[in-house]
Amino acid sequence: MRIFTKAEATGPAPDGDLEHFTGHVTHLRLHAPEGEHPSNVSVVRFDPGVRGSWHTHSGGQAVHVLEGEGLIQLRGEEPVVLREGDTACVEAGEEHWHGAADGGPMAHMAISWGGIAWLEKPEAS
């Protein structure tokens, strides 16, 4: 068993992979078991205006905003504002991106199932 304190889950995390983001993020992986039904639980902190690349999850994803204000967009739709306490659920295979709004940083907990397929970076706002 591994236990994360509130300070660990809300404090600084390792730098994120810039290949899949438009700028600086930190990424703290809380849970990532392997096996028949892989899942991933992470806290990701985005600098203002930073977004993740378009991507899909083979089993879907839930994004819960912990602090700040963010955006999420499904392919072919307009971006939707997410505020602290909001949760967005993305169906398996839906192309989407999410990240911080331009006005400030944002942190969310992302829970995903199955594999991830990274696509292109979103256009700048």
Terminal residue distance: 42 Å
Helix proportion of residues, in percent?
under 10%
Classified in CATH, the superfamily is Jelly Rolls
Shape: globular
CATH architecture: Sandwich
Percentage beta strand: 35-45%
Structural class: mainly beta
Mean pLDDT: 88
Named CATH topology: Jelly Rolls
How would a crystallographer describe the biggest sheet? 7 strands, antiparallel
- Total number of distinct structural domains: 1
Which radius of gyration do the C-alpha atoms yield? Answer: 14 Å
Summed up, the helix count is: 1
Order of helical and strand elements: HEEEEEEEEE
Unreliable runs: none
Work out the number of β strands.
Answer: 9
CATH class: Mainly Beta
What does this structure look like?
The chain has one helix at residues 6-10; strands at 25-31, 39-46, 55-57, 61-74, 80-83, 87-90, 96-100, 106-113, 116-118. The chain is mainly β and 125 residues long. It has a single domain (28-117), classed as Jelly Rolls (Sandwich), CATH 2.60.120.
Task: Briefly characterize the structure.
The protein is mainly beta and 125 residues long.
Tags for this model:
mainly beta; 9 strands; two-stranded antiparallel sheet; 125 residues; single chain; globular
Topology summary:
Blueprint: H1 6-10, E1 25-31, E2 39-46, E3 55-57, E4 61-74, E5 80-83, E6 87-90, E7 96-100, E8 106-113, E9 116-118
Antiparallel strand pairs: 1-2, 2-8, 3-9, 4-5, 4-6, 4-7, 4-8
